[in-house]
Amino acid sequence: YYEVHNIVVPHIGPVPIAKGDFHKLPQKVQKFIAKWVDICAPRALYICDGSKAESDEIIHKLVERGVLTELKKYENCFLCRTDPADVARVEAKTWISTEEKYDTVPHVREGVKGILGQWISPPEMEKEMNDRYPGCMKGRTMFVIPFSMGPIGGPISKIGIQLTDSNYVLLCMNIMTRVSPKVWETLGDGDFVKCIHSVGCPRPVTRKVVNHWPCNPERIMIAHRPTEREIMSYGSGYGGNSLLGKKCFALRIASVIARDEGWLAEHIIASVIARDEEMKDGSVIDRDEGCRTYVVLRIASVIARDEGWLAEHMLIMGLKNDKTGEEKFICAAFPSACGKTNLAMLQPSVPGYTVRVVGDDIAWLKFDKEGTLRAINPEAGFFGVAPGTNFKTNPNAMKTFQKNSIFTNVAETADGGFYWEGMEDEVDKNMMITTWLNKKWQIGAPGKAAHPNSRFTAPASQCPNIHPDWEKPEGVPISAIIFGGRRPTGVPLVFETFSWQHGVSVGACVKSEATAAAEFKGKMIMHDPMAMRPFMGYNFGNYLKHWLDLEAKPHKVPKIFHVNWFRVDEEGEFLWPGFGDNIRVLDWVLRRCAGEEGIAEKTPVGYIPKKESFNLTNLGDLKWDELFSIPKYYWLDDIRESKRFLEDQVGTDVPQVIWDELDEQEKRLREL
Ligand code: GDP
Ligand code: PGA
Ligand code: MN
């Protein structure tokens, strides 16, 4: 029972409102919508409320149109097949626009192509936008999605408004973020992150629509204006490109906000010092026992540090020791499709811990007044890699998506179930299967049933081991940070870094095999510093400096570790069983955090576990020495290569501390 109004937009005339009351929205929001209605020229406006009724209505329509297929085996679950040309994030078409180039990208060596973000000048960006957006929603409905990243109204939470012409996006946003009319109340006259998304396929369509999935792959452009807190995504409906709360907002834009708030704090220092100068002959000086400048600076720098926070590509999980009842939380940063979701939902293979998930992809981290690093998960759902997921590897994920979930580019069994590579033992061998490309297929036949980057989208609240505090507005305290990637050779299962600075240098040198999460073909080993290469919101050198600056009193910085679940033997077989057995590694990590001595051995790259201290119960034969070897010449090559990478890609922006750490590591390796 929505009132129907028309909003009158210059040049366009009245635009019918299919749902919602435009005139009750905050003024700034009305202006924002009117501007984009004017540009995009949708045929109607639909103001979303995030309700179940809303999702049901949209689902009903999409099933009728053939966009979604009901998976009858489960409750309220649907399959979506995209245009096969729109299946992953597109890094080459992702841009950030700032006045000053080096705010966004580092000083890359001449003649080298930068890989840590792409900068575009504001006028060029304007031109690209003008080439795409005018009239881009003709014949389509513009959905207005008010969403909160983090619990609505929470101290670390942030609000975004997404305009989109994709109802699939609306459905997924309803799962992945908190969409609610309460967002309007919380927002009031406040600022919000402006998100504009179009599939770039106005009606009448000129490009053939495949699978009822309108998109415009040739013209994709994922653009960010961090200063304006604005995201404009065109041409793709795929998750990482279109669910703008996720990578675009919660990583790229949020990392800039996090940095800016740190800078804001530097202004506070400056103004406190300025005031101090003015009061040189004033009466307050004696209060500070003659150390006024020192005291003022100290207080101000505490404020500064308190304000600086981080937006990272990290899972968050809690591990409760069943004997002591003590619980510790950790964060881990792995590149896309390298094991975050699986680790976060871990089902331990050995007793000892109760493991619960707080988040599986993004962490916003901030030090509290006591100096404890706290993390929140800004999302409300999981957008997880389907292949490889089964009741053995990740039972918690399987249980999470038995209802109210959307599956994208997976295969379908004849009895209305989902199917993907990795489910061979859980489906009848003779079952008829329809692949993601709509071809008939059976287990054992050539080719793949599901796209390697096929995904499930499921509400986090349905996860059997979701942590009771997962929506705690102030977040959970973090004891360890873990970096990792897919490293088939040379890199041990786990090592502990020597210090915060050493840990940051290890993070800066993270590398991993390319995966299907983005457009790269083949399995080349790529640099993915801090697992943030595709998601850097600003100059990576400044980002490293921001990390290094966080180590200052009263901050209790967590220990930093590096893991690698993916080392292989000569036959190419994984040396480590992974998944539920990763608890054994986390057990060692937590014991190190608790200060346990005698369980670690020093190597040039960090501490590794002593075999006798590591839980190997029921593991069968493990090639321990191969799993933990640190080949001297491999590592010397690796460090030279990493230095070259930093010289080429980050140049003069690399903080000196990082060079010092790398030099010391090289020295330790030479002495091996
Ligand atoms: P995310 O994108 O970082 O969240 O990665 P996922 O947790 O979704 O995992 C991506 C792929 O890696 C999936 O196919 C998983 O089955 C696989 N994977 C995850 N953890 C492990 C592990 O410990 N060992 C092995 N061998 N594969 C893993
Ligand atoms: P993930 O994220 O693979 O890091 O979970 C999704 C994406 O890369 O689009
Ligand atoms: Mn994931």
Helix % is 25-40%
Which small molecules are bound? guanosine-5'-diphosphate, 2-phosphoglycolic acid, manganese (II) ion
- Radius of gyration (CA) equals 26 Å
For the terminal residues, how far apart are their CA atoms?
75 Å
Query: Strand content of the residues, in percent?
Result: 15-25%
Poorly predicted runs are 265-269, 271-306
Q: What is the number of strand segments? A: 33
Mean pLDDT: 91
The number of helices is 17
What structural category arises from helix and sheet content? Answer: alpha/beta
Taken from the alpha-carbon principal axes, the silhouette is globular
Please explain how this structure is put together.
With 672 residues, the protein is of the alpha/beta class. It contains 17 helices and 33 strands. Strands 1, 2, 3, 6, 7, 8, 9, 10, 11, 12 and 13 form an 11-stranded mixed β-sheet that branches. Strands 14, 15, 16, 17, 18, 19, 27, 28 and 31 form a 9-stranded mixed β-sheet that branches. β32 and β33 (606-609) form a beta hairpin. α16 (632-649) packs antiparallel against α17. The protein starts with 5 loop residues before the first strand and ends with a helix. Residues 265-269 and 271-306 have low confidence and may be disordered. Bound molecules: guanosine-5'-diphosphate, 2-phosphoglycolic acid and manganese (II) ion.
Task: Record keyword descriptors for this entry.
single chain, 672 residues, alpha/beta, eleven-stranded mixed beta sheet, nine-stranded mixed beta sheet, 17 helices, 33 strands, 29% helix, globular, binds guanosine-5'-diphosphate, binds 2-phosphoglycolic acid, binds manganese (II) ion, manganese ion binding, manganese, PEP_carboxykinase_GTP_N, EC 4.1.1.32
